[in-house]
Design goal:
The structure is a homodimer. In chain A, the strands form four sheets. The first copy, chain A, has a seven-stranded mixed beta sheet with strand order 4-10-9-8-7-5-6, sandwiched between helices. A four-stranded antiparallel beta sheet of chain A has the order 11-12-15-14. Chain A has 18 helices and 15 strands. The radius of gyration of chain A is 31 Å and the shape is elongated. The first copy, chain A, is an alpha/beta fold. In chain A, helix 8 packs across helix 13. Chains A and B meet through helix 1, helix 3, helix 4, helix 5 and helix 6 of A and helix 1, helix 3, helix 4, helix 5 and helix 6 of B.
Chain lengths: 477, 477
């Protein structure tokens, strides 16, 4: 039996039970109470210290739950065998300081004077006031809706709103129950891979949206890149593979900017219908922005056989900070979704889903899109006109849609070399090459691809475009 | 050459180019212009129709981009070969109506009069006013922060705030750079599986938090359930497996409510340090709610070797609608995280991250936790007292923490049968059995487990507890 020499301080802010706990714990970690030693009973110690028995019980319960003591039925409390591995607070504090030294904040993205990014948007026209007002209204509507869990696949109202929008704008033909809302396209692909099951073989256009490629690779899928740098993916090439899934951007291929011809669309749908388990993932990332003619209807809308999985996003049409994407599953995949993924809570806050639904239903989104389409078309036209004046510009493609152009240059320098030199001058332009799947970057490369730059203009003013073009002119000439 | 009999309506709201487009498209889909047929040049057709040449060019561009026409250099425009698969708008509308019939809104969760759920919280004390005020402040701070993309691993300020909180509250010892913020524990496990790589073998307590089990299974991991229904997972059993990863809840095992003794903690850390690539996933889901003694420090805090991956959440401490969880990665895993997952944008809106950081830094979270701890302790004490009066209650365990109790009943009916009968009376209680990994539900089951109910009380009033207990009394006696 260990004799405890505890002196309690009745005036301390530390509760009595904690003083007892601290004393015993310290004695055990210091080895003053050794392994297997019996401790006094709670009744005895309470009488000895002149405190309530429950005070001692609390201290012992804490020591028990942390493993410093063991309780043997009908026998009492014994000190446990704890090795010297246990760190005391001081040691933890030292470790923490040391960790702080080792780690630095990860380096910020290198800042350039000018970035010709295909992903950056113009925000100046966003109806902030309307968005804030809707947010405030939603926030003050009722308490419960703020904190109770929402629907796993997304709030029903938002899904209904999206299904109406997709039907009108994209010819997508679905019931709200087929729509899954999630925090970004990549998240939806992570879900989709669980729905489709492990080990699929996926044909993907090359070059492509590399995040999709990497996400599906991360999920253990075998990726089969198909050349898509001439007129998009070719059905003949697809048929040589043993692919079960095709990932494609028929309305506006990224980064090539090509539109899949009707013939290829029908061929692709036929391919999918020829064997069960074949699916087409249609990524319709920026279909909202076409500057000539009407938007091209989705592949999903002309599919008879439930083989198209349609994915779209508000991250492109509103902003990358709005992490709301949607996936339309064919009916046949819904039960697999509910079985394998139905337990995942939605990754988009209910509040944000409600704000977005109100933003769409109030007509703000449509008006914003119309405005932005005009603005981006203006930028597109200016940029195109500026580039056409340049003697080093050999060919421009991917125009009339999206927020970037492909520019083949007349130069001895490759696009990669031009990118490097521009970086040194504080200007970030992109080589088309950067969008090729790494492992296939050097295979069968056409010489013009090596000489093609990708220039995004979505976030730039005309003055900035001129500045960037002047910089390229200097480098190339 | 096809002769086009277009009659343009200059007074129509439909633009002229669209009238031309519509006419040609209709003629192609109707087969009036057949595959391979040459169309007039834009110059000819413009003169013929007495419209600007650019009007015809727009129509042709649209038809080209949708694949109805093909352009042969120096030759002109030809109708493409489109099969009858192409659906016109009417057919789409019909399909849509049919789809609406087939699908119904997925059935709402069956509503019970009373739910003894371990997941439901009490929200009445949430400082809605403070949360709203912070939200409004953040919303009106500056426009750019609302729409520009945030940091992939989470906003730095929130990560710093979390690292301070975790150090003070849980003894977790980390740099903010080690923290990854994500929309819920399951999402973080999806990321983690990509960081750790494919095909791992994971030992997991049984019974356990089944969403974690299912998430890791979905990621293709081989799951190795270890019995944890007596005194938690046993290190001896772990050593018989070829597990590389352990998923565990040392501070408060769900659903058993056990606290892992120090000896087992040290044993687990030793196991992890004995081979490279071994990791312990410490799920610290509800450590904030202990009603006796101090919270138990985390396993991460006593780990010397960077083998513990710590996961915690605000979904439990604030509400399931706040989908914000955090994962602390050991330094050694950071480069794999950035390589494989660094490209994923954060799944938590920047706005919500800022609100949460301000909520923590303003002391609201701490005050809220203190208040809720008192409230849940009150509920816990009442529920325990009520249950102790019942003759059919044989043994209560898992008390003094969390928001549920395990109750072994004296009855000929199994817990599963009691659950069924209670459901009929509109009361949802749970059988401990429901939390066992399905495939192992009947293996080596102790008889007392078959007779144990899991009763959550977090969202219930004392009157509701009494009502539920009365219902159980009726069923059992």
């Amino acid at each position: 039996m260990h004799e405890l020499m505890i002196v309690l301080d009745n005036h301390s802010k530390t509760p009595l039970y904690e003083q007892i706990y601290d004393y015993i714990r310290k004695n055990i970690t210091d080895g003053k109470i050794s392994c297997g030693e019996k401790l006094p009973s709670t009744r005895f110690l309470a009488a000895h210290l002149q405190v309530a028995r429950s005070t001692v019980e609390s201290a012992y319960a804490q020591l028990l739950s942390e493993g410093y003591l063991e309780s043997k039925p009908c026998l009492g409390y014994y000190a446990s065998d704890i090795s010297d591995l246990y760190l005391n607070k001081t040691a933890i504090e030292e470790k923490r300081k040391e960790a702080q030294k080792v780690f630095l904040r990860p380096p910020e993205k290198k800042k350039y004077r000018l970035v010709f990014s295909p992903d950056e948007n113009e925000f100046s026209c966003f109806p902030y006031a309307a968005w804030r007002k809707i947010s405030r209204d939603i926030l003050s509507q009722d308490d419960a809706s703020l904190l109770t869990a929402g629907e796993a696949a997304g709030e029903w109202d938002l899904r209904e709103t999206i299904s109406r929008y997709l039907y009108q704008a994209r010819g997508v033909n679905c019931h709200p129950g087929q729509i899954i809302v999630g925090a970004g396209n990549e998240y939806l692909l992570l879900l989709l891979a669980q729905v489709l099951g492990a080990g699929k073989r996926v044909a993907i256009e090359n070059p492509t949206y590399l995040k999709a490629y990497q996400t599906l690779s991360n999920m253990g899928y075998q990726m089969l890149p198909l050349p898509a740098f001439k007129n998009g993916m070719q059905i003949e090439e697809l048929q040589y593979t043993n692919a079960e899934i095709v990932y494609t951007m028929p309305s506006h291929q990224f980064p090539m900017g090509t539109v899949m011809p009707m013939k290829m669309r029908l061929g692709l749908l036929q391919w999918a219908s020829r064997a069960s388990g074949r699916y087409i993932i249609e990524d319709d990332h920026d279909s909202e922005f076409r500057y000539r003619g009407k938007p091209i209807p989705s592949l999903q809308g002309i599919d008879h056989n439930g083989t198209v999985i349609y994915i779209g996003t508000f991250s492109k049409s509103i902003s990358p900070a709005i992490r709301v994407s949607y996936m339309v599953l064919p009916k046949e995949l819904l039960s697999a979704y509910y079985r394998r993924c139905g337990f995942y809570a939605s990754t988009v806050p209910k509040e944000q889903q409600k704000v977005l639904a109100a933003f769409l239903n109030g007509g703000y989104f449509e008006r914003y899109l119309n405005k932005m389409r005009r603005i981006y078309k203006g930028k597109h036209d200016s940029f195109l006109a500026l580039l056409k004046q340049e003697s080093w510009v050999k060919k421009i493609s991917g125009d009339h849609a999206g927020m970037h152009l492909l520019v083949e240059v007349k130069s001895d320098k490759s696009a990669g070399e031009i990118v490097k030199e521009a970086k040194k001058r504080g200007v970030r332009v992109y080589a088309l090459e950067e969008y090729f799947i790494f492992e296939y970057r050097d295979e069968g490369f056409l010489p013009e691809l090596k000489n093609t730059l990708l220039l995004g203009y979505g976030s730039l003013t005309e003055a900035e475009m001129k500045e960037g073009i002047a910089c390229l002119r200097e480098i190339i000439n």
